[in-house]
Amino acid sequence: PRALPDNLWERCPQCRQLLYVNELRRNLRVCPKCGHHFRLAARERLTLLLDADSFVEEDAALRSADPLGFVSAGERYRDKLAEVQRKTGLAEAVVCGQGRIEGLPLRVAVCDFAFLGASMGTVVGEKIARAAERSSTDGRPLLLVCASGGARMHEGIYSLLQMAKTAAALERLAAAAVPLLTLLTHPTTGGVTASFAALGDIVLAEPGALVGFAGPRVIEQITKQKLPPGAQSAEFLLAHGMIDR
């Protein structure tokens, strides 16, 4: 008998049901059994979100350098970058550009967790800042689709500086009276949460997304207190007025 391909089914991490891949794709990678939102790659999200053939990428040529000559466990940061670029087909952890949704023009920046946990290094910060500056000039609303494990510590203080740089660029966007929307996906944590992710005029979050600065285990270790059930979930944040929908 003919062997079946091994990529026909995918297991939902929440309800553990086996899902037919084509059915899951038709449902925009939301589990039809329990509503769990599967993680989307940046270009996959752009395809689902924007009008067909409307996306024009910006700053595609930007690449991270290795300002510290960082080495961990014998592996050089520059080699790690090259490996991740090869595996993901991305130059960096965020993809930026112009597009349309139902005919309406906007600018969009989408983080991809598969690229070093969508950590914010110099190029991620620069691309977000440039997107804000372009929207300040041409008036296109800016949508930031956020995901991150936090700052990219391979780049040290240069990474942490991106928090201030992106916040300052978004302040200029606000002064230009151009709308900013942020969509928080699973997970959005660390320096990204503490900078551009939380600054939207409207802040949305995917159901079930983990959103916070430090992770639950870190908080419990430091405070010696148990967090409430569901703390740092999108639903918890909505109930406590931290997000809009």
In words, what does this structure look like?
- The structure is a single chain.
- The protein is α/β, with parallel strands linked by helices.
- Strands 3-6-7-8-9-10 form a six-stranded mixed β-sheet, sandwiched between helices. It has a two-stranded antiparallel ribbon with strand order 1-2.
- 33% of the residues lie in helices and 20% in strands.
- The mean pLDDT is 95.
- It contains eight helices and ten strands.
Helix count?
A: 8
How many β-strand runs? Answer: 10
How many angstroms separate the termini? 50 Å
Main sheet attributes: strand count, strand direction, barrel closure: 6 strands, mixed
Structural class: alpha/beta
Beta-strand share of residues = 15-25%
Global geometry: globular
Radius of gyration: 19 Å
Unreliable stretches (pLDDT < 50, length at least 5) are none
Order of the strands making up the biggest sheet: 3-6-7-8-9-10
Share of helical residues = 25-40%
Give the H and E element order.
EEHHEEEHEEHEHEHEHH
Features:
245 residues; two-stranded antiparallel sheet; 8 helices; 10 strands
Q: In short, what is this structure?
A:
The protein has helices at 21-26, 42-49, 77-88, 122-138, 157-175, 190-193, 216-223, 234-239; strands at 9-11, 18-20, 56-58, 71-72, 75-76, 94-101, 104-111, 142-148, 180-188, 202-205.
